[in-house]
Amino acid sequence: MKTELQNSSSSDNKNLEHIVANRENFLIYENENLLKAIKVIDENSKRIVFLKDLNSKVVASLSDGDIRRYLLKSNDLSIAVSNIANYNFIYIHENEISTAKQIMFEKRINCLPILNSKKNLTSILFSANFAYFKNIVVKTKKLNVPVVIMAGGEGTRLKPYSNILPKPLIPIGNATITEQIIQNFKNFGCKNFYMIVNHKRNLIKAYFNELKIDYNLKFIEEILPLKTGGGLCLLQNKINKSFFMTNCDVLLDENYEQIYKTHEKQKNIITLICVKKDYTLPYGTIETNEKNVVKNFVEKPKFTFLTNTGFYIISPDFLNLIKQNQAINMTDIIKECIKAKKKIGIIKVKKNSWYDMSQLEDLEKITKFFKK
Q1: pLDDT digit string (tens) for 174-232?
Q2: How far apart are CA 4 and CA 127, in angstroms?
Q3: Can you state the angle between helices 64-71 and 34-44, rounded to 10 degrees?
Q4: Pairing relation of β-strands 285-288 and 192-197?
Q5: Which CATH superfamily includes the segment(s) 147-371?
Q6: Helix, strand or coil for residue 66?
Q7: Who's near 50: CB < 8 A, 6+ residues apart?
Q8: How many helices (H) and strands (E) does the chain have?
Q9: Do residues 282 and 304 touch, judged by C-beta distance below 8 A?
Q10: Contact between 117 and 93 (Cβ < 8 Å)
Q11: 171 Cβ contact partners less than 8 Å away, ≥ 6 residues apart
Q12: pTM higher than 0.70, yes or no?
């Protein structure tokens, strides 16, 4: 049974799904094995289960993200779930339900168990509508703009993770990186998604086909690797308005509606989302004249430059610049636009609003951030 939130006068909580009657579908004993947990998660379709002790006291949580991270290291399904569960899980008591949205928002979680004084599970709150980042506080359902996710690469910089899972399915928090990206766009009303796939595409398609989604997702299959730009040729005659394009290893915490309106106002053929980065050279630099006489010495000089985030707003005319079945990078197409004097714009965003997970060390940082 799903009910409205109880003991809450705040309309902020109205989008929360409150599960009461079938909460037993989310509980297993902490000494049961991983295979049991997988079956229960599959049956409840919410991608999480809670562990209880012999007194029915809830002691931990176990998400499908926890399971995927474990399976990257081992395939032993007989292991007790207590070995991989999260015993520092977040919960609230029955008399704290009015604070649910604030807690879920601040902790960046979309599932919150409610326990009684004996730590027995009384109900569970779910939400698919909250941003995963605290800076997004105003959402709109008016931005119905197509979104293209480039998900065809091999993820070579994310090995050994990508040896097993394709990059779009690598877990970040309690969901895959691609689901996190989609959720951010959904928060602003986007509901039509195109995912360009190649490497391990059948595995990617199988994963999303098993999900119960509330948006439209079309897979565009590359037969040959076409790089970040070439794959866009497969969208010719499919999109007739400006659209978002993002790499599948980028999370951007910004106001997408404002970004889109800026692109349309400036009438760019493509708009690049950029971040100002500071880099300090870890060495001292020396300037000399032609006679090798030292003229200046700078200890660890600091450089500032704009970097491309891998997030774009693209006008449909841009697609006509790409030749069919030509393997080409986005950067090379943009260079051609510059030579042809096409109008290219940039939008600068805060550096702490861009999360790049293209490399292993960055992936581990953002994973710890979401887990915390």
Answers
A1: 788 899 899 889 988 899 999 999 888 899 999 999 888 889 999 999 888 788 888 89
A2: 13
A3: 140
A4: unpaired
A5: Spore Coat Polysaccharide Biosynthesis Protein SpsA; Chain A (3.90.550.10)
A6: helix
A7: 26, 27, 28, 58, 60, 61, 62, 89, 113, 121
A8: 10, 21
A9: no
A10: yes
A11: 64, 65, 68, 69, 177, 367
A12: no
Question: Which is nearest to 149 in space by CA: 173, 175, 184, 174?
Answer: 184
SS3 204: helix
- If DSSP states are collapsed to H, E and C, what string results for 256-306? HHHHHHHHHHHCCCEEEEEEEEEEECCCCEEEECCCCCEEEEECCCEEEEE
If you count them, how many residues does the chain have? Answer: 372
> Which run of H or E residues covers position 362?
helix 360-371
Residue range 2-126 forms a domain whose CATH class is: alpha beta
Hey, which of 179-183, 350-354, 368-372 has the most confident mean pLDDT? 179-183
Tell me the C-alpha to C-alpha distance, in Å, between residue 102 and each of 53, 95, 108, 122, 159: 29, 15, 10, 20, 36
158 within 8 A of 72, measured Cβ to Cβ:
no
* Contact (Cβ atoms closer than 8 angstroms) between residue 133 and residue 108: yes
- Reported as type and span, the H/E element at residue 314 is strand 302-314
Do 239 and 195 contact (CB within 8 A), yes or no? no
For the chain, give every domain's residue range. Answer: 2-126, 147-371
Contact 147, 250 (CB under 8 A): no
